[in-house]
Amino acid sequence: MLVAVTHKLWMDGVSPRCPGITNLKGLVISALNSAVQDPNRAITDQVLFAVSNLAGYEVLFGNKATYEIHMNGLTRIIRLRGGMGNLGFEGGLERMLLWHDMNFSSIARHEPYLEGLATTPRLHAAKPDPGAITGGIIKTHPK
After folding, report:
1. How many domains does the chain have?
2. pLDDT digits (tens, 9 = 90+) for 100-142
3. Can you tell me the distance from the alpha carbon of 140 to that of 143, in angstroms, rounded to the nearest whole number?
4. 22 within some domain
5. By residue range, what is the domain housing residue 103?
6. How far apart, in whole angstroms, are the C-alpha atoms of residue 124 and residue 116?
7. What are the helix (H) ranges across 14-63?
8. Domain membership flag for residue 95
């Protein structure tokens, strides 16, 4: 919800740093911090997806340093799960995380974080398409 609300308001000319978005981001981070403190919830598919989305939010509306923190955390959680092959949705979560990583890393001008963790290396062979992940905000490869 944070990404959708921020994107809508940003398209309407509202700063991503406005009080309403800042408060919503605080709620998201608080909920996620609570989840990662619980050993049973910390490594769930839902938390992995949420961390990936928050990392993407930071690439688009926040800062690169925070993006890197979230991606390093995501990598640690995946390793705690025993690797990408143990993620849910019959490989769907792995594909989504790899797609996020490839595109957000491209935007951040960073090497992908999850490349070495992929159980299907060909998934990382695709070219980044920042326009697809940003709804057209970024139209070309930034490099």
Report:
1. 1
2. 999 999 999 999 999 888 887 665 556 677 776 666 666 444 3
3. 9
4. no
5. 35-120
6. 9
7. 19-37, 45-61
8. yes
Higher pLDDT among residues 10 and 137, named by residue: 10
What is the pTM for the complete model shown?
0.83
Which residues have CB under 8 Å from 44's CB, separation 6+?
35
User: Tokens representing 118?
Assistant: 């992929």
Please name the residue that has the structure tokens 């991503």. Answer: 16
Six token digits for residue 69: 């923190």
Does residue 105 fall inside a structural domain?
A: yes
Nearest CA among 81, 60, 59, 79 for reference residue 69: 59
Beta strands in 1-47 (DSSP E): none
Instruction: Output the six-digit token pair for 106.
Output: 């491209």
**Phi then psi dihedrals of residue 39, to 5 deg:** -55, -30
Q: Which of 63, 59, 64, 84 is nearest to 74 (CA)?
A: 84
One-letter amino acid at 1 equals: M
> Are 87 and 48 within 8 A, CB to CB?
yes
Whether the Cβ atoms of residue 52 and residue 74 lie closer than 8 Å to each other: yes
In a domain, 76, yes or no: yes
